[in-house]
Design brief:
about 300 residues; alpha/beta; Alkaline Phosphatase, subunit A; 2 domains; five-stranded antiparallel β-sheet; 11 helices
Length: about 300
């Protein structure tokens, strides 16, 4: 079987506001990309369909051959899978941000100063929160980012976010977006968690230290992207291929894990501009020795 490599240079196109009226791609010296374009086949692709703005999650699902309208439940589950959480059927998964709020739960900083210290202490404190009729499972990812799972009986992902997405706004109360007991129950659990986690975090030692130093404390968890484990047939069952995925960002590793690819985060792969790109390429070449297909994600 012929081996294949799929490279996604995510965001490569850029915008004309990137650099002196040009996109970064227009301004860059790109002899290798020019050569590939010359010897290859070029075209434009609407990842989902014409006129639909593709999100990173839905676009990747579509590129792998899945219809987002059929399998997409939300982004939270991919973030959870991508950082190695054990997601079970029925779990409600969220993207989670450590953030800073005042005493009235008004958001001061949605990223808690991009906190990069005391994350183990904060993770332990969040996991100590007890709510009625459910279990809270939180895992820290990078800086202020993390994922949270609510596990219990009779829950629904059909609820709204608590993240207002703007500073100066109060943390939102989760609400059911369908008339169902399960959705009302889940929204109530999320609202109970929001209050209790603030009570736990605001007096944490790391936050007292940060406040003395004039830094933003991580005293709340903002939740968004509620979702459940999707019913997705693995790529191997569809195409009969063994594949690997190489990425730095949790989302892309999570999507790959959901579709049955072996996931690898190489040394130095951060998903940011300081990511070690050569480490990804070397890992891909190593994987091609034993796999049919390798997906490499570069964040542009």
């Amino acid at each position: 079987m012929m081996k294949a490599v799929l490279v996604i240079a995510d965001g490569l196109g850029g915008r004309i506001t990137d650099y002196n009226g040009k996109t970064c791609l227009e301004a860059a010296d790109t002899p290798n990309l020019d050569y590939l374009a010359k010897i290859g086949i070029n075209g434009l692709l609407d990842p989902i369909e014409h006129g639909v703005r593709p999100g990173s999650d839905t676009a990747h699902l579509s590129i792998f051959g899945y219809d987002p309208k059929e399998v997409y439940t939300g982004r939270g589950v991919f973030e959870a899978l991508g950082i190695g959480m054990d997601v079970q059927d029925g779990d409600i998964c969220f993207r989670a941000n450590l953030a800073t709020v005042d005493d009235e739960l008004r958001v001061i900083d949605r990223r808690a100063g991009r906190i990069n210290e005391g994350l183990d202490e904060i993770e332990k404190a969040i996991n100590s929160v007890e709510v009625d009729d459910a279990e809270i499972i939180y895992k820290s990812s990078v800086e202020h980012r993390g994922a949270l799972i609510i596990r219990g009986e009779g829950l629904s992902y059909r609820i709204t976010d608590t993240d207002p997405h703007k500073t100066g706004k109060k943390v939102l109360r989760a609400k059911a977006i369908e008339r169902a007991v399960s959705a009302e129950k889940t929204a109530a659990i999320v609202n109970e968690f929001t209050k209790k986690v603030h009570d736990v975090l605001k007096d944490l030692e790391i936050n007292r230290k940060r406040m003395k130093e004039g830094k933003a404390p991580a005293n709340i968890v903002l939740l968004r992207g509620a979702s459940i484990k999707p019913d997705i047939k693995p790529l191997k069952e569809i195409y009969g291929i063994e594949g690997s995925a190489i990425a730095g960002g949790a989302l892309y590793l999570g999507i790959a894990r959901a579709i049955g690819l072996k996931t690898i985060k190489p040394e130095g792969a951060t998903g940011r501009k300081d990511s070690n790109l050569l480490s990804k390429v070397k890992t891909a070449l190593d994987e091609l020795e034993s796999r049919d297909f390798v997906f490499i994600h570069f964040k542009g």
